[in-house]
Amino acid sequence: MSDTKQKLEDLNDRSREVFRRVVEGYLETGDPVGSRTLTRTLSEQVSAATVRNVMQDLEYLGLLDSPHVSAGRIPTQLGLRMFVDGLLEVGDLSGEDRDRIDQTLGNNEQDVATLLDRVGSALSGVTKGASLVLTPKHEAAIKHIEFVSLSAERALVVLVFADGHVENRLFSPPAGQTPSSMREAANFLNAIAEGHTLSDLGAIIAREIAARRQEIDKLAADLVESGFALWENEGESNERLIVRGRGNLLSEHGTEADFDRIKTLFDDLERKRDIAHFLDLAEDGDGVRIFIGSENKLFSLSGSSLVVSPYMNADRKIIGAVGVIGPTRLNYGRIVPIVNYTAQRVGRMIADRS
């Protein structure tokens, strides 16, 4: 049993009900919930003073906080986590939400890039949050790789796939590269890459370089490693993340500090620093996962929450993820089935194509 669930089990019925109603009230309105409000809704007749004592106990446990001395209470991040783990009631996807997602996604005749862009628009439109869509890697077999020198500090790596798809990336090559070392690097890669996908190639390159390092020039080896890393890390992230609906988050926050936190979040997303981590979040769990505030290092500075679910191809392999970002005061019970349905729908559409 997790620590949060154990804490929930340790509460008596009255404390659990007070806690649940404070969190539900806060998620609905965004405002602190006071003892007088609670006394009118509790299942048992108790005084406002009794409710205040219970709220103080919950505050002592780290589950509630009081933003002002005389105000009501709001849940802490720990309190929200405990609510999500043990008390959250996830509803069924409403017919209206389902219809809006289906209508926005349209048919399956679009290319994958257009389809996933529409997925992001659908999610942000339906949830009024910001959406993240991590797109699949291109998994066709590789036909040809080439390095093109543009200057001493800039080079282009070109990848041609067997299905005709072409990708190219600018990168900074290791110092001292020459036309000869670039040709040698390309020849080495083409000798081992043809017929393999990008997913296969990483392990093959590492193994071949280790076995044949004496046969290839060190400059060429460095170029191979740095050029391929572009697809596995930075370059791949720049291409694979679709963010839509950021204006929805800005409209939810009024103070200068809130705007600064949201700006920090999107600055991080623009740099794509933790996108590999974002996919790890989805791959680590089965189905929808919820990350609140600092539980996810990508959003730790912005005080945001993420609801994310992976989607799979026809072979049941996780190839991407969809998610919704919002303030910690998300309507989790509604957002979870929306993200879950969207991920399943995307997986089916991609599987149908293959």
UniProtKB/TrEMBL annotation:
Pfam family, one: HrcA
Protease listed as a keyword: no
A GO molecular-function annotation: DNA binding
Gene Ontology biological process terms, A to Z: negative regulation of DNA-templated transcription
SUPFAM superfamilies for this protein: GAF domain-like, Winged helix' DNA-binding domain
Stretches assigned to the Heat-inducible transcription repressor HrcA C-terminal domain: 115-336
InterPro entries given in the database record: GAF-like_dom_sf, HrcA, HrcA_C, WH-like_DNA-bd_sf, WH_DNA-bd_sf, WHTH_transcript_rep_HrcA_IDD
Keyword terms: Repressor, Stress response, Transcription, Transcription regulation
Keyword hit for Transcription regulation: yes
Record NCBIfam families: hrcA
Family recorded in the similarity comment: Belongs to the HrcA family.
Function per UniProt: Negative regulator of class I heat shock genes (grpE-dnaK-dnaJ and groELS operons). Prevents heat-shock induction of these operons.
Protein name, as recorded: Heat-inducible transcription repressor HrcA
Organism: Cognatiyoonia koreensis
Lineage: Bacteria, Pseudomonadati, Pseudomonadota, Alphaproteobacteria, Rhodobacterales
Gene: hrcA
